[in-house]
Amino acid sequence: MRTTRSGERLQESARQVEALLERHRVLEQLAQRQEGPKKDLLEALSHRQNLAELAARLRGLHPADLALILEALPAEDRRLVWTQLQPNQAAQVLAEVSESVRAFVLGCSDVDALRAVVREMDRDDLAWLADSLPRGLREEVYHSLSEQDRSWIASQAIWPEGSVGHLMTGETLTVREDESVGGAAAELRAHKTLPHQADALFVVDSRNVLRGVLPLRELLLHPPETAIGEVMNADPVVLEPHEPAHEASQAFERYGLVAAPVVDDRGKLLGRVSVDAVVDFIRRHSELAALKRAGLSGEEDLFAPARESARNRWVWLSVNLVTAFVASRVIGLFEETIQGLVALATLMPIVASVGGNTGNQTVALMIRGLALDQVTRGNIPHLVRKELSVALLNGVVFGSIVGLAASLLYGSYALGGVMAMAVLLNLLVASVVAVGVPIVLHRSGRDPAQGASVLLTFTTDSMGFFIFLGLARAFLI
Question: How far apart are CA 23 and CA 179, in angstroms?
């Protein structure tokens, strides 16, 4: 048996799929150059042989790997691969791909093919993807479900994205408190299948109120006659559907959970959240946060049309343009000063750059602290004092280095002193802004990752120019 790392296996699968797609394009080009009967023959061979081989290769791939391959393909290749998937495989891929790629493949699917795919979805995936499906098809499939499944999908619709309820699944294993370990094991064996990531039975009473959790290992470690109430965990970690999903992710990481029960305000069991759903949430949240820090307004398909990609970048490009004009006007206030000492023009970017770098480091720490609930109202003054101390220390060290370099380059100790003082003051400004902006955005209900870098860059550039040129006017000109 040959073992391969998951990343290497995915790359190898992607290369094989790309090779088959390239061969398909070559055969089509050859067919188009032919005339008469040969053209029809070549086209038939291209579709029958190469597409059959492609479909066979795709059937052997995991849905998660297929989703990544789809996301890495240009539009035409992506459409071709999607049409070769079997309905049951396509249903699983839809739940794995990014939102932008999901919209693409749904848009290029005809109604009959999409109907076959949707009918292969379980109720959790239907609830998850309901808003992405065409309305008519969604209603058609909804009315074909059992009453229980319709009730579950309707109940899921009330929970917003980013909540525990949105991650919840209704697949649970329950047992009564007064049963024995042997009886619970017998009930478990009676199930045809078990839910994914199921590591425990949820102990409930006659009203479906959660009483505890019985880890599956306890079924093996205790005699069959042992009462469940004696070996269950009566104080498990419990989630509520209205809680933010990021709090659930912290609980999973803190307590090493595989799954956790979800209860309503009366303690009744509603469902459970599994670790795979939490990991998916963390990945999506991290990706969106990274995009927002870069100034993108939302998720963007790497192969989206240029017009769509341009629109996605307009918001923060516009903000950045405005802030750049403001920074240029700050420089304009000191045109005479710069004309009097041309060296100032070459040294200004250093002051702004050092301040921006320091501020970005602090912003990254603050965003992480806010995400982990480490930043509270009580410790904010301490954080401000600490970051000011760091900025003061770094300002003295690096300001001295920059000031000495400026003195040696231009033969002016006064210029070196101004440079050192400007770096120090701009680092202090950067630390205050880097602490304050994420906190203000968080308190106002906005994502602190979105816009913090743009606002920080604007402040450190403008204040860096103002401080440096202001000191130069006061002491050099």
Answer: 62
